[in-house]
Amino acid sequence: MILPTNPRVLIATKPVDFRKGMDGLAALVAAELKLEPFSGIVYVFRSKRADRVKLLFWDGTGVCLVTKRLRLEPSATVPAAEFLHSIGRIKNKPESWKDYFFSFSHGLKGS
Question: Taking the model in full, what pTM does it have?
Answer without folding.
Answer: 0.65
